[in-house]
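Lab meeting, item 3. Inverse folding demo.
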């Protein structure tokens, strides 16, 4: 794997900043990015019997990693990891990347499992999901097509950005006014512009003159059409000279140039580099990548709140669902999704493009690898996309894959649907059917058409849930919590497509809300109803209550019922017994016709006048309303204790 030129260019650190760590010539080569020479010198030191510190062993491991010798890199990383605690999160990612490139993925998964307690739950979930996604057959390529662009040079070209009807990009191609940047051996970066043709190809690249001139880095632009303002990164400099912090470090800042306005710095810190600005006019947020020391890995994604493009907050980390022990760069939002690049170990290559959906609570769904085409075994980054009336979607990205012209090249692409591997996403809220309040800790399970469970998650404190798996044509979603009803629904075809487009909110009932105690028994809670005297036909009033029974069985599929009917004492005992039994038989037939399984009805009993509730027995005069108290139908829940566990 070739190290992306943008990483070397953007490090921009003078050797003076590492003076306290440079002890040998090998260290000098390492911190000067001469990794092959560093390997030779470290090996010479070991042959001479000069002991290496664990920090130097990690430098040597990094040098092997940067020169694609993953076998030696993984051995050294593992050796230091087992005997010391000095390994950074970013080097931990390098270790797992090395293991992934030199052994079966199962070894990396086994290592993750053994260290699961020390890794974040988000990292484990992201890894497991993307492993499964990349191992599954890709559904279709949605007419995906790569466009080779004539704007690339033998040097580094990357960081595309839409600019009106043109494309901006960064390049280190030689120019008379640009100095040579030592670590890369190429010119300092500059911004170029080209014209986008009808096919998506880009023509006539020229240096962009919409920003102030500088002999140092200017790169990764982003143009906000709403604000008519260009954001970009640039070297920290004053009066034409680079500026350094007290450790001798020069870093990169974010500047802006409003239309017909004066350029200025937006984010500047001599000890911190900022990369890849993206301004979201809807939220007034400026997103970027940065290497703050308290991040999750190398570079992380952050945002700041702005007002009239003035920074109004401290940088806010996008959190462990997005940021990892690797490097995350190049944030780009489109149609409610965040696209970004990461070199986390579970990708297809060095750096891959991922997509995560922005949720209503400002959180993100599991980042999804965009798959073959956009991503390769090389480094793929700087992804942008927009809608196209004729092609569906058109976009651009950077890559150092084989077959290119330079170190990093800009590629175009067209695709007929939203980019990314196709997944199933169920999200929404589980609420109490009576109170409407969210239910926490409910199990949300997804099953395939063979009945095997694909994934299980639990609702959050507010009842919200989100569950995502690789695409299936047929699935069943079930939601359950103890002492509550069960929701179960089968999806395929248009119903499956529809549920992807909007939240699926689910109501479940607490068992205590559908039952009550009567006559020393637990029965379904229904409105009282009576049959017309001497008759057993089911009228509209009765059927409305029986439909509630059907619904209760649907909610509690494991429920077992005994159906009881009682008459008053008017009429003969034998006729009352007979009509009572006829009624429960009719009720059972109605329920079966409505889809209630026969196993849910344990028995039906017509008691007639055997269980009179008051004194209105044979020979006793009573008013009609007192007789009506004895005429009743009950659905006795025989396994209430099981339902209430």
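The presenter then showed the designed sequence:
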């Amino acid at each position: 794997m070739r190290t992306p030129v943008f990483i070397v260019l953007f490090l921009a650190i003078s050797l003076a900043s590492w003076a306290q760590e440079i002890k040998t010539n090998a260290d000098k080569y390492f911190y000067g990015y001469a990794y092959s020479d560093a390997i030779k010198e470290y090996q010479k030191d070991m042959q001479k019997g000069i002991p290496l510190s664990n920090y130097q062993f990690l430098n040597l491991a990094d040098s092997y990693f940067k020169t694609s010798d993953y076998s030696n890199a993984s051995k050294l990383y593992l050796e230091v990891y087992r005997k010391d605690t000095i390994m950074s999160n970013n080097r931990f990612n390098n270790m797992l990347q090395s293991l992934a490139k030199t052994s079966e993925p199962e070894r990396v998964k086994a290592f993750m499992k053994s260290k699961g307690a020390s890794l974040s739950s988000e990292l484990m979930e992201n890894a497991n999901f993307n492993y499964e996604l990349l191992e599954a057959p890709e559904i279709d390529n949605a007419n995906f097509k790569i466009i080779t662009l004539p704007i690339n040079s033998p040097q580094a070209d990357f960081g595309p950005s839409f600019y009106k009807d043109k494309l901006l990009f960064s390049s280190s191609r030689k120019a008379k006014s640009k100095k040579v940047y030592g670590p890369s051996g190429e010119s300092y970066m500059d911004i170029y512009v080209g014209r986008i043709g009808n096919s998506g190809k880009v023509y006539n690249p020229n240096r962009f003159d919409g920003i102030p001139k500088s002999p140092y880095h200017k790169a990764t632009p982003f143009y906000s059409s709403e604000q008519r303002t260009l954001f970009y990164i640039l070297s920290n400099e004053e009066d034409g000279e680079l500026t350094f912090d007290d450790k001798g470090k020069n870093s990169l800042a974010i500047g802006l140039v409003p239309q017909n306005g004066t350029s200025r710095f937006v984010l500047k810190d001599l000890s911190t580099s900022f990369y890849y600005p993206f301004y979201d006019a809807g939220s007034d947020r400026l997103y970027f990548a940065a290497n703050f020391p308290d991040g999750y890995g190398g570079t992380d994604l952050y945002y700041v709140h702005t007002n009239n493009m003035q920074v109004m907050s401290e940088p806010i980390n996008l959190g462990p669902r997005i940021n990892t022990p690797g490097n995350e760069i190049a944030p780009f939002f489109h149609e409610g999704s965040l696209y970004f690049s990461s070199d986390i170990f579970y990708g297809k290559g060095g750096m891959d493009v991922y997509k995560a959906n922005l949720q209503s609570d400002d959180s993100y769904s599991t980042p999804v690898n965009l798959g073959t085409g956009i991503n390769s075994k090389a480094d793929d980054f700087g992804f942008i996309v927009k809608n196209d009336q004729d092609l569906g979607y058109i976009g651009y990205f950077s890559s150092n894959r084989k077959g290119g012209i330079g170190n990093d090249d800009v590629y175009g692409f067209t695709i007929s649907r939203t980019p990314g591997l196709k997944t199933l996403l169920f999200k929404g809220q589980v609420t109490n059917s009576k109170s409407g309040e969210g239910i926490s800790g409910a199990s949300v399970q997804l099953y395939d058409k063979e009945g095997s469970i694909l994934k299980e998650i639990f609702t959050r404190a507010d009842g919200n849930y989100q569950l995502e798996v690789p695409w299936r044509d047929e699935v069943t979603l079930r939601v359950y919590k103890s002492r509550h009803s069960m929701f179960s629904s089968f999806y395929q075809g248009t119903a499956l497509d529809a549920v992807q487009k909007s939240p699926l909110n689910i109501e479940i009932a607490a068992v205590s809300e559908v039952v009550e105690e009567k006559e020393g028994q637990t029965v379904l809670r229904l409105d009282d109803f009576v049959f017309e005297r001497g008759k057993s036909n089911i009228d509209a009033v009765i059927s409305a209550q029986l439909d509630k029974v059907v619904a209760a069985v649907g909610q509690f599929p494991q429920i077992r019922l005994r159906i009881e009917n009682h008459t008053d004492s008017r009429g003969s005992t034998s006729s009352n017994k007979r009509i009572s039994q006829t009624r429960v038989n009719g009720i059972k037939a109605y329920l079966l016709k409505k889809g209630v399984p026969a196993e849910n009805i344990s028995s039906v009993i017509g008691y007639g006048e055997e269980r009179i509730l008051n004194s209105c027995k044979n020979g006793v005069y009573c008013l009609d309303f007192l007789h009506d108290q004895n005429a009743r139908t009950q659905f006795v829940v025989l396994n209430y204790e099981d339902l209430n566990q």
